[in-house]
Recover the amino acids of this structure.
Protein backbone atom coordinates (compact mmCIF):
# COMPACT_ATOMS: atom_id res chain seq x y z
CA UNK A 1 0.00 0.00 0.00
CA UNK A 2 1.10 3.45 -0.85
CA UNK A 3 0.85 6.04 1.96
CA UNK A 4 0.71 8.98 -0.44
CA UNK A 5 -2.70 9.68 -1.97
CA UNK A 6 -2.70 10.30 -5.69
CA UNK A 7 -5.24 13.14 -5.68
CA UNK A 8 -5.23 15.64 -8.51
CA UNK A 9 -4.46 19.25 -7.76
CA UNK A 10 -7.57 21.18 -6.81
CA UNK A 11 -8.31 24.91 -7.14
CA UNK A 12 -9.37 27.52 -9.65
CA UNK A 13 -7.45 28.53 -12.71
CA UNK A 14 -6.46 32.13 -13.27
CA UNK A 15 -9.02 32.43 -16.09
CA UNK A 16 -11.86 31.31 -13.80
CA UNK A 17 -10.89 33.80 -11.08
CA UNK A 18 -10.64 36.63 -13.61
CA UNK A 19 -14.04 35.71 -15.07
CA UNK A 20 -15.69 35.84 -11.63
CA UNK A 21 -14.05 39.21 -10.92
CA UNK A 22 -15.25 40.60 -14.27
CA UNK A 23 -18.83 39.47 -13.56
CA UNK A 24 -18.68 41.06 -10.08
CA UNK A 25 -17.35 44.32 -11.58
CA UNK A 26 -20.16 44.45 -14.16
CA UNK A 27 -22.75 43.83 -11.44
CA UNK A 28 -21.23 46.57 -9.24
CA UNK A 29 -21.26 49.02 -12.14
CA UNK A 30 -24.93 48.24 -12.83
CA UNK A 31 -25.77 49.00 -9.21
CA UNK A 32 -23.77 52.24 -9.32
CA UNK A 33 -25.60 53.38 -12.45
CA UNK A 34 -29.09 52.89 -11.03
CA UNK A 35 -28.68 53.38 -7.28
CA UNK A 36 -26.65 56.49 -6.41
CA UNK A 37 -29.23 59.22 -7.02
CA UNK A 38 -32.02 57.66 -5.01
CA UNK A 39 -29.65 56.36 -2.35
CA UNK A 40 -27.93 59.72 -1.92
CA UNK A 41 -31.31 61.47 -1.80
CA UNK A 42 -32.48 59.03 0.87
CA UNK A 43 -29.27 59.55 2.86
CA UNK A 44 -29.62 63.34 2.62
CA UNK A 45 -33.25 63.07 3.70
CA UNK A 46 -32.30 60.99 6.75
CA UNK A 47 -29.49 63.41 7.67
CA UNK A 48 -31.75 66.45 7.27
CA UNK A 49 -34.46 64.84 9.38
CA UNK A 50 -31.84 64.11 12.06
CA UNK A 51 -30.75 67.76 11.88
CA UNK A 52 -34.34 68.95 12.44
CA UNK A 53 -34.79 66.53 15.34
CA UNK A 54 -31.52 67.80 16.81
CA UNK A 55 -32.81 71.40 16.52
CA UNK A 56 -36.06 70.44 18.26
CA UNK A 57 -34.14 68.65 21.05
CA UNK A 58 -31.71 71.56 21.41
CA UNK A 59 -34.61 74.01 21.88
CA UNK A 60 -36.05 71.84 24.65
CA UNK A 61 -32.77 71.15 26.47
CA UNK A 62 -31.44 74.73 26.21
CA UNK A 63 -34.87 76.26 27.04
CA UNK A 64 -34.34 78.59 24.09
CA UNK A 65 -36.13 78.80 20.73
CA UNK A 66 -34.25 77.48 17.72
CA UNK A 67 -35.11 78.09 14.08
CA UNK A 68 -33.92 77.12 10.65
CA UNK A 69 -33.49 79.60 7.83
CA UNK A 70 -33.81 78.16 4.33
CA UNK A 71 -32.91 79.45 0.89
CA UNK A 72 -32.77 77.85 -2.56
CA UNK A 73 -29.41 76.25 -1.93
CA UNK A 74 -28.58 76.64 1.77
CA UNK A 75 -29.84 76.16 5.31
CA UNK A 76 -28.72 77.62 8.65
CA UNK A 77 -29.76 76.74 12.20
CA UNK A 78 -30.41 79.83 14.31
CA UNK A 79 -30.98 80.52 17.98
CA UNK A 80 -32.87 83.40 19.53
CA UNK A 81 -30.39 85.86 20.98
CA UNK A 82 -30.97 86.68 24.63
CA UNK A 83 -32.77 89.96 25.12
CA UNK A 84 -30.47 92.83 25.89
CA UNK A 85 -31.39 96.00 27.74
CA UNK A 86 -29.89 98.06 24.90
CA UNK A 87 -31.46 96.03 22.11
CA UNK A 88 -34.99 97.03 21.21
CA UNK A 89 -35.89 93.44 20.39
CA UNK A 90 -34.03 90.15 20.39
CA UNK A 91 -32.77 88.83 17.09
CA UNK A 92 -31.65 85.54 15.64
CA UNK A 93 -28.02 84.44 15.58
CA UNK A 94 -26.35 81.44 13.96
CA UNK A 95 -26.51 78.46 16.31
CA UNK A 96 -23.29 77.72 18.11
CA UNK A 97 -21.71 74.57 16.77
CA UNK A 98 -23.02 71.43 18.40
CA UNK A 99 -22.61 67.83 17.43
CA UNK A 100 -24.35 68.39 14.08
CA UNK A 101 -23.31 70.77 11.35
CA UNK A 102 -25.40 73.89 11.91
CA UNK A 103 -25.45 74.98 8.29
CA UNK A 104 -25.00 73.50 4.87
CA UNK A 105 -26.02 73.27 1.26
CA UNK A 106 -28.82 71.35 -0.36
CA UNK A 107 -27.73 68.91 -3.09
CA UNK A 108 -27.58 70.64 -6.47
CA UNK A 109 -29.94 68.17 -8.12
CA UNK A 110 -32.78 68.87 -5.62
CA UNK A 111 -35.30 71.71 -5.72
CA UNK A 112 -36.59 72.57 -2.25
CA UNK A 113 -39.99 74.04 -1.42
CA UNK A 114 -41.54 74.93 1.94
CA UNK A 115 -45.29 74.37 2.19
CA UNK A 116 -45.53 74.30 -1.59
CA UNK A 117 -43.73 77.61 -2.11
CA UNK A 118 -40.23 78.11 -3.52
CA UNK A 119 -37.52 79.25 -1.13
CA UNK A 120 -35.92 82.71 -1.34
CA UNK A 121 -32.71 82.89 -3.37
CA UNK A 122 -30.68 84.42 -0.51
CA UNK A 123 -30.31 83.08 3.03
CA UNK A 124 -31.39 85.51 5.76
CA UNK A 125 -31.15 85.38 9.54
CA UNK A 126 -34.92 85.01 9.88
CA UNK A 127 -36.07 81.42 10.32
CA UNK A 128 -39.00 79.99 8.40
CA UNK A 129 -39.36 77.01 10.75
CA UNK A 130 -39.38 77.33 14.55
CA UNK A 131 -38.61 74.84 17.33
CA UNK A 132 -39.92 75.97 20.72
CA UNK A 133 -38.67 75.06 24.21
CA UNK A 134 -41.95 73.30 25.07
CA UNK A 135 -41.40 70.78 22.25
CA UNK A 136 -43.72 72.37 19.71
CA UNK A 137 -42.54 73.06 16.18
CA UNK A 138 -43.90 74.92 13.21
CA UNK A 139 -46.28 72.88 11.11
CA UNK A 140 -44.53 72.48 7.78
CA UNK A 141 -43.87 70.32 4.75
CA UNK A 142 -40.48 70.52 3.08
CA UNK A 143 -40.47 69.03 -0.41
CA UNK A 144 -37.23 67.98 -2.11
CA UNK A 145 -37.63 67.00 -5.77
CA UNK A 146 -35.49 66.33 -8.81
CA UNK A 147 -36.97 68.43 -11.62
CA UNK A 148 -36.05 66.01 -14.40
CA UNK A 149 -37.52 62.87 -12.80
CA UNK A 150 -40.07 64.17 -10.30
CA UNK A 151 -38.58 61.88 -7.66
CA UNK A 152 -37.61 63.04 -4.20
CA UNK A 153 -39.00 63.11 -0.68
CA UNK A 154 -40.99 65.20 1.78
CA UNK A 155 -40.25 66.03 5.41
CA UNK A 156 -43.39 66.82 7.37
CA UNK A 157 -44.05 68.16 10.86
CA UNK A 158 -47.50 68.13 12.38
CA UNK A 159 -46.44 70.36 15.27
CA UNK A 160 -43.74 68.32 16.97
CA UNK A 161 -41.09 65.66 16.59
CA UNK A 162 -40.69 63.07 15.16
CA UNK A 163 -40.68 64.34 11.62
CA UNK A 164 -42.06 62.14 8.87
CA UNK A 165 -39.89 61.35 5.86
CA UNK A 166 -41.74 60.07 2.77
CA UNK A 167 -40.40 59.21 -0.65
CA UNK A 168 -42.00 60.78 -3.71
CA UNK A 169 -42.15 58.58 -6.79
CA UNK A 170 -42.49 59.39 -10.44
CA UNK A 171 -45.75 61.06 -11.32
CA UNK A 172 -48.04 58.72 -13.25
Amino acid sequence: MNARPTAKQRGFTLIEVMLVMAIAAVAAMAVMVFLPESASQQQFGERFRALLEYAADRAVYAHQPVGIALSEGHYQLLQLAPSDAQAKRPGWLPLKRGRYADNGQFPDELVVALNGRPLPPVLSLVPQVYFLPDGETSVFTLTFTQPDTGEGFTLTSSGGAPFELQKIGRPE
